[in-house]
Amino acid sequence: MASGRILLLWICLLQLVWAQRWPRTAEQSLSSGRILEARSLEQVVLRQGQEWQGSSSIWLLQLENGVQGVFRSEDEPWGSQAEVFAYRFDQWLGSELVPPSAVRTIAPGEWPGAWPFPPGPRVGSLQWYVESHTPSQAEWLELAGEDRANAEILSFVLGRYDNHLGNVLVGADGRLSLVDFENCLELEQARYGLFPFIRRGRRRPDLPSLEAGSAFPFEQPARLEHPALEEIQRQFGPWWTIWPEGMRQLARRPEVRYAVWDHCLWVEARAGSRHPAFTEAPPVASLQRLAALDVAQLQKMLLPPFSQAHIEGFLERARQVLLGKDQGRGAGRNLSSSESAKLLPKPMLAAQKAVQEIFQPVPFPTTLPALPPLCSESAIRFSDLRDEFGQRVSQAGSQLLTGPSPCPKMNWPSPDSCVRAGGDLRGPSQQASGTKSAGRFG
Fold first, then answer.
1. 319-335 per-position pLDDT tens digit
2. pTM of the model
3. N or C, fewer C-beta in 10 Å, the chain?
4. Beta strands of 79-219 (E only): which ranges?
């Protein structure tokens, strides 16, 4: 009898190992393996007969331990940090869709062959290389429903609005992988099931604007019909002072939808996206994990240049996923705890019992400590989070707000190191060059 129980225990343990998609030692292998070979990922993809949509400065590294990894970096950390954060969040959610990624600093002496970067060590991310192909739309629809649902949840909560199929990989096992999470670093106004509006440029309190206390105009934004580049530059120039290529991309659209809200310019993100991130069938396990998301959890995952404003956005979008498309109204309308408790189960009948057990109306303090500014121009508004996350945000947020710095575990951007608290956190050299850091697949 005892031997039978031991055998059953071993079978259960083996099933857990087999069920895990990525090796447990993946991060350590990526962080420490000696580099034997470096090849341009662009050339690797083109030789496979696939289309390349990314940057020529992304490298496929062969490590001594047998692991292959994709190395991306910038003169100042940007998209590479987003890849690591996305992997950490994906692991926490339990969806296993983002390949293992680790921060890695490479010295010139470690690089095989000529050093392709500016002098000095290079900080970036090294991501597990997946032997894969880019799916067609028809193939995407045939993939496992839970993977597709979690892909939509990840994309919305993390603000990954650039969800074209070039950023989706299908491996030999038939499972999909998601890459290029650079959009996570943008600040956005989002409503679940609609295209988000992305903040562009600096805050201009000296110019007319809809006030932050009013609802964001998702249904009635301003529009430019078949705009010429000169018209876009004239309309958006007072706010949008960097990355001129972005304006040229807008000039190729038949319509540009935008809003001036909270004295900032917000432009709808449509180019490259197949559809707004949304799923009708969210997995119950993913909803349960999102219900536990709070400030403390996000602090453990984030790296600079992520900020307090990003934390606010992640929590707000997670709230909308939990409420569903019809009830999650984002910045347009914030629901009270009692409203959330009533509305939450309706769009998610399959998860009704589980979600009702997770969410109970909780008291939220009527006053909060004074908030330190993210940058010299603005401050995070925790009042927007007075909802079902109230108790967790209150507990974790009190430590965040009363400590010696906005977040003791993170090097938050200072007023002197960033242009704004939302539109662009690129460093001085990227701002001066007017370039956008390249993603792995565009």
1. 999 998 665 543 334 34
2. 0.74
3. N
4. 101-106, 122-128, 132-133, 168-171, 176-178, 188-189, 197-200
